[in-house]
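Two proteins, back to back. First:
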Amino acid sequence: MVRLFRGGLTRSVFALSAAVLLASCGGSEAPAPPPTISAISPLSGVQGTTVTLTVAGTNFSASATTLSFAGAGLTVSAVQVTSATSATAQVAIAADAALGPHAVSLRTPSGAAAGSFVFTVLPPAPTLVSLNPATIAVGATVVDSLVGTGFVGGATVAVDGVGVTVANTNVASGTLIVAVLVADPAVSPGARHVTVTTAGGTSNALALGVNPPAPTLAAIAPTSGNAGAATAVTLTGTGFIAGATTVNVSGAGVSVGNVAGSGTTLTATFTIAVSAAGGLRNVTVTTAGGTSGPVSFSVNAAAPRIASFAALPDTVGLGSSSMLSWSGVAGATTCSIDQGVGPVSCADDSVAVHPSATTSYTYTASGPGGTTTAAVTVAVVAAPVVTSFVSTATDATAAQPVVLTWTTTNATACSIDNGVGAVSC
């Protein structure tokens, strides 16, 4: 029996007696407390990378401390306990590791760490490859396709500067975002930059051009021009930019030059080729802001052209023939020769004629631009006739020469043989 007294001696005897009693009963030292986690660093990592994780807490054991994560895709290696309150480990994050938080667990022989710390797996930072379209007009709304990599749900699209806002963002896939961009009517034209941000970071920036409003075209004067001629025109509308407005004419054969003006008026020269087809053309104007609606301009087709129409020979004897030939006929759909010849080809060709008297032939070429003619004359002459040829005597002497006398018709060159030579007809 232990008697208790007041005073320090009594307390010492009681403590000593308690110790002796504990020893006699076979007791041992109290177990070590379980570990705790007070912080981890870093709090996140990117898919496909390896990070060095530092864990702070209490009661870490140098001999048997393990670190693990909830879920798949995170592999732990090289756990090092540097003190009872600090440990490090290498954490390899698989490329397909589940995105989001993963609970952290640290265990020693005394138990598992208490607390609710998580390590968050992030996607790689996105990249931007292209924008389509890469421009937007002042006051316009466009649906823009952004192509790149690393796009995930919750991604946001941003446009720097003021005046262009993102009205809607749809992450269609890991490589495509469809966004609705709205340019304020008062925004200043110029360059902007578009980026995509996810939990993994912010992409590179791509340029977005803010262009002035698309022009409008209200009228053109005159409204027509002739093939083979240059026509000065005046165009009226809105949004014309000095030195940066193009005038376009549909179809072939019309070239545009000398474009000048700005604001609401432009002047230009339409040079219409001779071969330009007749009919209506569409005229539009284009600036960096877009292309206007069309107005009509009429091309009046040129009259047909006949490069050559000839007769060979152009003089024949009665009963002989001449060859009529033509070439270089353009702009014609039908061709003919009068004097009974009739329809002929509009391509290079020829036809034989047998006039009984001097005759003029007319080649007629007809087409959308009108009618053109060319004419040649074939002269018909009768065969020459010696109507008389006489001498003053049948015998000639040196003292008395003979005189020859003649008359002819239809002759242009006459001569006498036996050394006399050329004579008058």
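And the second protein:
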Amino acid sequence: AFDLNEAGSVWQHLATLISRLREVPMKRNSLLCVMICIVLAAAAHVTAATRDWQTGTLTEVEQEKIREGSTRHTNTEGTAKDRGNKTDYSQNSTTTTMENIETWQVYTIEGEKKVYIAREHLLFPWSKPANVTVGDSVKFAVEKGKLYILDDDGKEHKATVAKVRMKTAQ
């Protein structure tokens, strides 16, 4: 649940910080950039605090690598040799094809009444999935087709809900 006292406290600290920043000699544009960053960070903190966190069990994790097509690149080098009254032209072409592979981490979380299957898009090769263990409990929140997972390191991960089904009676 959302704690109004906590949000008020965040905004009070923000106002104090901004008033102190005005005392620091700084160019107006730099001060504006710093203030915008602080406001955005505070808004993100308040948003994270407002999530309706649930506790569930992580029942399955799978990493999918999906081919999304390919990119072809051709490099052509040309040379011209002057032979007096004649010019010889030559060229050499090299074509490379790169596969476009997208990586998705798929999480299956069993909540109190529903089972959620969600996919997190790992955008870069160095992107890391949530640090969670299959069979352990996990904190999660569902909002507008997105599933937020709070991993063992306290980091929040956003995944797209792919499937929801009712939990079967046992």
